Amino acid sequence: MSKLKVENLDLYYGDFKALKDINIEVSEKEITAFIGPSGCGKSTLLKSLNRMNDLVEGCKITGTVTLDGEDIYKSMDINLLRKRVGMVFQKPNPFPMSIYDNIAFGPRTHGIRNKGKLDDIIEKSLRDAAIWDEVKDRLKKSALGLSGGQQQRLCIARALAVEPEVLLMDEPTSALDPISTSKIEDLAVKLKDDYTIIMVTHNMQQAARISDRTAFFLLGEVVEYNDTETLFSMPSDKRTEDYITGRFG
Amino acid sequence: MNNYKEKLMQFVFFIAAGTSVLAVALICIFLFANGLPAIGKIGVFEFLLGQKWKPSNNIYGIFPMILGSIYVTAGAIMIGVPIGIFTSVFMAKYCPKVIYPFLKSAIELLAGIPSVVYGFFGLMVFVPLIREIFHVRGTTMLAACVLLAIMILPTIIGVSESAIRTVPKEYYEGALALGATHERSIFRVVLPAAKSGIMAGVVLGIGRAVGETMAVIMVAGNQPRMPQGLLKGVRTMTANIVIEMGYAAQLHREALIATGVVLFIFILIINLSVSALNRRFENGSN
Ligand SMILES: Nc1ncnc2c1ncn2[C@@H]1O[C@H](COP(=O)(O)OP(=O)(O)OP(=O)(O)O)[C@@H](O)[C@H]1O
Ligand SMILES: [Mg+2]
């Protein structure tokens, strides 16, 4: 059964229709990549999956998004939804507090106060995000002192600390150097064992390297959604082919 | 030509910047030159810790006024700071768009009201109210505290609100995305991120409260004796100076200027402790 299912989703920013009739099913413990030119609605769809679009004034959504069969826009508690569907932003956004407090923020939010338990969660999350060795001696130092790549992995660790089921990542490597990028790619592949991952990327090789399924977006529509291998080797739509071969404007 | 222009502008900027430095320097010199000799004549301890102020008997102890200023300011801070911070949070994060312009201009208006008008308001409203409720003379420390609390509100609200607004929205969104509520995101992430700005607002408020004169004189009773409680009269350092300056001569006059010196040092200490505090914050988070 699919973990996340988007059906007939239309999204408006005021009068502007940013997403048109989106239908996507995301399977559990897979990496799904969203690709497509700038402004085609990838981030918008991603933010609809944990309702971050609720913050945007004038944003209207029709259609349904279900998580394990439950409509996230209906009865589901929004904070619980965001605990289950975590998000890593394009720009690393660690809080201006210590590394420890950054990671502890989520678990504390969800009621974990026990120091020993928090310590365990923090170590595990940082290890899972492949940054433990780099920060274990400076947990009490400010997170803002980390490099961009470290900050992004910290943000991934912070998202993991609340034990989400789905992890949304919006171009998590766009601001990073090749080494940090490959660390985060490796990380995504490793995390796939436990998490369902959806990742927006502008980097076609990245999508091809790590994702199981890929959705190609164009002007607010999903043109093609298929196994990554199939989509990249035998795209069924001419526009997809143009885009992945770089012949697209 | 360009170079010449640049040099000229540099000079103009330098002069402009120099003016305020010069003003501070002149004030310092004036205060200390006129005030310190008096402190010497009266005796440092007798002046600062003396509990009696009786110019007619040549007794000049300003301890009651020092305490008066501290108590009145502390009271104003205790009432004004929470209200101010909550208001600024409301304005930056909760306020419906329709209400905001009204609230904003109301607070700006509050900032523009002359202090003598505040004093009048206090005299006509708080003083009788306190007299009714507690059956005491209405001109009390309590009246001064409440009035000052209102007077420092605009400062605290204005500075705190802009501090809260400058916190990157990514922090707020990041907290929400972890499943935190609107409240938790604001109070645990956004507010701490704005703390040095909020702190600055509070300190400006303290500065205003310590320095306020007119409104306090009108509602505080002004007896030059040790403060004896919220429901008794109190005299602050500023009040001391203003009330007696008109007729003071010789040592009395100098003692009043020396009161100004103490006031000045108070403000200095407040400013220094704040920059120290801010440095601690920055070190703590860097
Ligand atoms: N808050 C908003 N208000 C109004 N329009 C918006 C808003 N956010 C996005 N849009 C519009 O919706 C469309 C899709 O934007 P979106 O950010 O989803 O694109 P994207 O595919 O993520 O692009 P990129 O690859 O550049 O990040 C764009 O035309 C954009 O201008
Ligand atoms: Mg985007």
TrEMBL record, chain A:
Its EC number is 3.6.3.27. It comes from the Bacteria. The keyword Zinc does not apply. It is a peripheral membrane protein. One of its GO terms (biological process) is phosphate ion transmembrane transport. InterPro entries: AAA+_ATPase, ABC_transporter-like_ATP-bd, ABC_transporter-like_CS, P-loop_NTPase, PstB-like. The keyword Cell membrane applies. GO terms for molecular function: ATP binding; ATP hydrolysis activity; phosphate transmembrane transporter activity. Keywords: ATP-binding, Cell membrane, Hydrolase, Membrane, Nucleotide-binding, Phosphate transport, Translocase, Transport. GO terms for cellular component: plasma membrane. It is an enzyme of class 3 (hydrolase). SUPFAM superfamilies: P-loop containing nucleoside triphosphate hydrolases. Residues 4-244 form the ABC transporter domain. Its main location: membrane. It is found in: Cell inner membrane. Part of the ABC transporter complex PstSACB involved in phosphate import. Responsible for energy coupling to the transport system. This is Phosphate ABC transporter ATP-binding protein. The lineage of its organism: Bacteria, Bacillati, Bacillota, Clostridia, Lachnospirales.
TrEMBL record, chain B:
This is Phosphate transport system permease protein. The keyword Cell membrane applies. GO terms for biological process: phosphate ion transport. It is found in: Cell membrane. The chain crosses the membrane at residues 12-39, 59-86, 107-129, 141-159, 255-277. Its main location: membrane. It comes from the Bacteria. The keyword NAD does not apply. It comes from Anaerosacchariphilus polymeriproducens. InterPro entries: MetI-like (IPR000515), MetI-like_sf (IPR035906), Phosphate_PstC (IPR011864), Phosphate_Transport_Permease (IPR051124). Keywords: Cell membrane, Membrane, Phosphate transport, Transmembrane, Transmembrane helix, Transport.
